[in-house]
Design brief:
Elements (H helix, E strand, L loop, with lengths): L2 E3 L3 H13 L5 E2 L4 E4 L6 H4 L5 E4 L2 H14 L7 E4 L2 H9 L12 H5 L11 E6 L6 H8 L3 E6 L1 E4 L5 H10 L4 E3 L3 H10 L5 H5 L2 E4 L2 H10 L4 E3 L5 H13 L1
Parallel strand pairs: 1-2, 1-9, 4-5, 4-6, 6-7, 9-10, 10-11
Antiparallel strand pairs: 3-8
Function: Catalyzes cyclization of the linear tetrapyrrole, hydroxymethylbilane, to the macrocyclic uroporphyrinogen III.
EC number: 4.2.1.75
Protein name: Uroporphyrinogen-III synthase
């Protein structure tokens, strides 16, 4: 198959290599860049005061861990949670065992028994410079003291959507690997409107029911939900569809 990889450069390179190992001919076009967040410097203050740390993406963990390594600090012995398997894997790479729900969404995380009795607990949420606030609002309603830490920031490269779309069509693009609602929206904005029917007919692999719902509302008709946002999960989902 000829899948399109749109995740940030480091993860895109790994995913592209993995796809080639499985006989695919991927096209790589990162639609998002990640950079160190403005609040990383506050980690030495906020992290030791936390009872619970929640990561909403693997980027949040990677940037936090890199900062801790640079400053000689370590992760404290507290409770860690990850919204999805990719975030949990990032914690594991840092030597941290994080609890992760089977349902890789904020709703799945909030349903975990360990996050029901959090009254009085200090919760630090590692994330980008924006995002959904469902986790913070819900935990606050349960009595937790919630604080965000923007460990990374998102930046969008300036791309020529018309030229890219024509190149993808010429290369026989037949599938899309999109790991977040944000990247899905970015892809929709990039591809010219007249080419949207062509885009909607591509096989779309997404990491969660929430992103699948967004895609269905946008107009996509062939949607596969992977077991999370990890590169391995995305490739496994594509392989299963290839064998059908």
């Amino acid at each position: 198959m000829v899948p399109l990889v749109v995740r940030p450069a480091a993860q895109a390179a790994e995913l592209t290599a993995l796809l080639r190992q499985h006989g695919h001919a991927p096209l790589c076009c990162p639609l998002l860049e990640t950079r160190p967040g403005s609040e990383l410097a506050r980690l030495p203050e906020w992290l030791p005061a936390a009872d619970i740390v929640i990561a909403v993406s693997m980027h949040a963990v990677h940037f936090a861990h890199h900062f801790l390594l640079q400053t000689g600090l370590t992760w404290p012995h507290i409770d860690y949670f990850a919204v999805g398997q990719a975030s949990a894997d990032a914690f594991a790479e840092a030597g941290i065992q994080a609890l992760c729900p089977d349902d890789p969404r904020s709703e799945g995380l909030l349903a975990l028994p360990a996050l029901q009795g959090v009254s009085g607990k200090r919760v630090l949420i590692l994330r980008g410079n924006d995002g959904r606030d469902l986790i913070a609002r819900t935990l606050a309603s349960r009595g937790a003291l919630v604080h965000y830490c923007a460990t990374y920031e998102r930046h969008y490269p300036d791309l020529d959507g018309d030229a890219l779309t024509r190149r993808w069509q010429g290369a026989g693009l037949d599938s899309l690997l999109v790991t977040s609602g944000e990247l899905l929206q970015r892809l929709l904005a990039l591809v010219p409107g007249p080419q949207h029917p062509w885009l909607y007919d591509r096989l779309l692999v997404v990491p969660s029911p929430r992103v699948a719902e967004m895609a269905g509302e946008a107009g996509f008709t062939r949607i596969v939900i992977a077991q999370g946002a990890s590169n391995q999960a995305l490739v496994a989902a594509l392989e299963l569809r290839k064998m059908e």
